[in-house]
Amino acid sequence: MAIQGMELFAVAVVILLFIMVLKQFGNTEALSLDDRTDSDLELSMVRHQPEGLEHLQAQTKFTRKELQSLYRGFKNECPNGLVDEETFKSIYSQFFPQGDATTYAHFLFNAFDMDRNGSIRFEDFVIGLSVLLRGSVTEKLRWAFNLYDINKDGCITREEMLAIMKSIFDMMGRYTYPCVKDDAAFEHVEKFFQKMDRNRDGVVTIDEFIETCQKDENIMSSMQLFENVI
């Protein structure tokens, strides 16, 4: 995969990699959220039960059939209704066996684990997926900003952007074509951070992030690549 600007790749990879997770969870066989087997009922005391189908349909841009399909796949992979971080890392490692996806998966997991309880619920999964696949450009960029804002303080520092970038290089940067230099992550961060930090205060706010991305034709194109894939 050629990298024609790591800033573009870093934003687009958020969507692309989560579609890979969708394929891992995805299942075309529909199953109502209300369908329960006897074993499901036996585990009801320890199993997380998702919100009602109608409620999730109202919160997302998925159809009833799509939600049923996603739930079936999610339930098959995670019978207790929750995804912990180790499971998430295991999923990503399958797609990058020659790299180390651990750190990137950690950052991405934290972006979905909004209530910081150490697990991702089905609701978290489909709401985030709805934004990435069907959301507006601004919604997608807000989600990407949340990924870069590692400590969730409302701004992105050079160190945070570099940490995300390094995690992408660890995962697959060594296997791109042409090969990238060891210091390429730092160089790309410096270039893009200077472009984003418009008032030169050393941090990037969400407004600066969105404004800069919206003015970049390549990033705008990347935001449209993965719409309506399910």
- Uncertain segments of ≥5 residues (pLDDT<50)? 1-12, 26-46
Neighbour order of strands in the largest sheet = 1-2
Biggest sheet character: 2 strands, antiparallel
The assigned structural class equals mainly alpha
Oligomer, anyone?
single chain
Span of the ends, CA to CA: 24 Å
DSSP, total strands: 4
Gyration radius from CA atoms, angstroms: 18 Å
SSE pattern: HHHHEHHEHHEHHEHH
Beta-strand percentage range: 5-15%
Q: Looking at the structure, what is the overall shape?
A: globular
What's the total helix number? 12
Helix content: 55-70%
Mean pLDDT: 75
What does this protein structure show overall?
This protein is mostly helical and 230 residues long. It is 59% helix and 5% strand. The protein has twelve helices and four strands; from the N terminus they run ααααβααβααβααβαα. A two-stranded antiparallel ribbon has the order 1-2. Strands 3-4 form a two-stranded antiparallel sheet. Helix 8 crosses helix 11 and helix 9 runs antiparallel to helix 10. The longest helix has 20 residues. The protein is globular. It starts with 5 loop residues before the first helix and ends in an 8-residue tail after the last helix. The relative contact order is 0.17. It is found in: Cell membrane. Keywords: Calcium, Cell membrane, Ion channel, Ion transport, Membrane, Metal-binding, Potassium, Potassium channel, Potassium transport, Repeat, Signal, Transport, Voltage-gated channel.
